[in-house]
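Example 3.
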Amino acid sequence: MITYKNNPIILLVSRVVSPFIILFALYVIFHGHYSPGGGFQGGTLLAAALILIRLSAGREIAQLQFKSVLGTPLGCLGVLIYFGTGLAAMLAGGEFLDYAFLPFGGLTAAEIRSIGILMVEIGVGLAVMAILVAIYDDLLEGYKYD
Amino acid sequence: MTDILLGHYAYWGIIALLVIGLYGMMFKNNLAKKLIGMTIFQVAIIMFYVASAVKWGATVPILDPAIGAADAAKYISPLQHCLMLTAIVVGVATIGVAFSLVIAIHRRYKTLDESTLLERMKTS
Amino acid sequence: MIIQNSPALIPLLLLASAISIPLLAIRKTGIAYVTAAAAAFCAMAISAFNTYRVWESGPITYHFGGWIPPIGIEYVLDPLSAFVTLVVNVVAFVVLCHAGGLKDREITEKATPYYSLVLLLLCGANGMILTGDLFNLYVFLEIFSLAGYGLIGIGEKQAPVASFRYLIMGTIGASFYLLGLGFVYIVTGTLNMADMKTMLPLLYGNPAVTAGLTLIVIGMGIKMALFPLHGWLPDAYTYAPSTSTALIAPIGTKVAAYVILRVLFFVFDVKFVDQTLPVTDLIGWLAAGGILFGSVMAIAQREMKRMLAYSSVAQIGYIGLGIGLANPLGLIGAVLHILNHAFMKGALFLVAANLRKNAGHSDISKLDATYRNRLPWSMAAFTLAALSMIGLPPTAGFFSKWYLALGSIDKGNWVFLVVILLSSLLNAVYFFRVLEKVYLLPPTDPEAGKALPKLARRRAVGQEEYSLMIPTVVLSFSLLLLGLWNANIVKGILQRIIPPGM
């Protein structure tokens, strides 16, 4: 992992497989609130797709897919999406995270709760992905690739 | 006696994992092996909760049109699984922090072996 | 909106500030400190408001997500949690004010993650105190612990090793808590504290409840640094940066003691933990051992922060002793000592930080009479805090020991009384050592001890910067106020804390 050898098979397979992993991860996130899946599981899959390229192609090339400086800010943004959903519910009159009070018009309470959970799961997925990639980058900071 | 041994076989396995994890944390000299022991310990506790959620003759807690929603005894309890999602995330975060500390220790003392580390801490 | 949501606002506000610091401070890292201080100030204001509300109208509950309690998570503001939140937030705000002037080199390099971790630490502590759900308590316990490991690991020479040891022991503690909670959850079927209190009396013979209670107490005992389980504390407090120690020492072990209080007396029945399964006896005797051990080890130390760390082990022993007595006077003594020790240790660690900044070291053997002139106000604050630790009236420390002594007499446990008195003498030994070197011994340099001419005296006070001096003095002189107002505090707040059945 420290020395980068030019191996065409690994590189080709990683490049082909990584977008499909991202697609499957999005499927897992969006199906989280009524079937197996959810924010944390989908976020881990997204992070796996990004770390796959970091492992096979090296850090410099992987910056084309996801820049390392974006790690912590995107993680905070994800948690802020979660927090913002709860805050919107609180400002609209309910308690924190009471999704029935979210300001979407014309839907029943059960449907608004479903949309609320979906927003929270998206925030969690984004945060988990960014933080796991940031952990990987920080643990390997300072190693030189050939 | 056989009732305790065979009826609760899952919990005996979990106790074995707990003890292996504690052994790794206490008796292994390498810092990374201590962390592996800690992970095994946390996984054993997660398995404990999940094993307690099972019911005889019940299926996964996803609403099945054939079974319907009226009878709660036909679905296993999903609450322990949700609690353990949180515990898994906590475990991941702990391992992240732990390995950052291990890397900082390695940069400062150039070793991960506990006895060598203690000697170098005395002299440095 | 603020009135309706006020129980939940403190952890939410601290969490929102913690996660927005990395976004706000991308260009200028100075914003991180300002945001942290502002958030701590708002938390202090809201906790004062909460205490006032509880004092006026009684306990308040808040249901997250609109789900009613056994199904949902609730936050409970009763007199005990409002009081402890107020103590934690006031001390945290004063220490953060001090941190601004300290300008520790390691912290200024990494200001953005450092202050974000500080706010996460406070969010975890406040969440642990306010929550009424046992699993939510585990989540906030881990938030608090992880932030603590990070804050300690930033320090000087041995800090990563000390933080690693704290991490291993702290994770074992939290995992034991989770395992014990699992046992109790399996037999009761609920995680809510109030609901569990109604279900447990039916189950007292059950071995799962015994196992669960034992594991919870041992797990939180590790986090609280109860006597044999205190091994992580001396190194962690010594090698961490000064601000981290001044934040974790007054707050960390106290919230763990609060959790044990809450679980033993408010979830389980007092009769059960005192007579049927004498967990409180065990805690009391271990705490008594810890008091003597901590005091003796503190006498043997040469460096001030390490001495204060062993002294913390002893002081946590007092709180454990109060829990172990399991009667109203002991409980009042324990909670009052939470308040007093937070202020005393906060002041003492801030004095150690000032000493390090001014003189570059905090070694006791190198102190001499020049420090009287170099750091006049810090040494005065140290003297007052030392007198309070020893337990001289009318400082605050005397009153908590008084209530603990009354509680031990009430219970008929004369050994505890002797331990309390003996430890006051031992505290006097290691504090008077410092005071003797600074105030009483003739100086080695004959010019140093004389009163300085007026200009030099003004420069001496100016040598000690105002931003460092004022927080230290505030924490220390409020010990006098807390001592004089002690009767009001006990009558007004603490008498309402006593759980039914005690």
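Chain A has a mean pLDDT of 87. Chain A touches chain C at residues 72-73, 76-77, 79-80, 83, 86-87, 90-91, 94-100 (CB under 8 Å).
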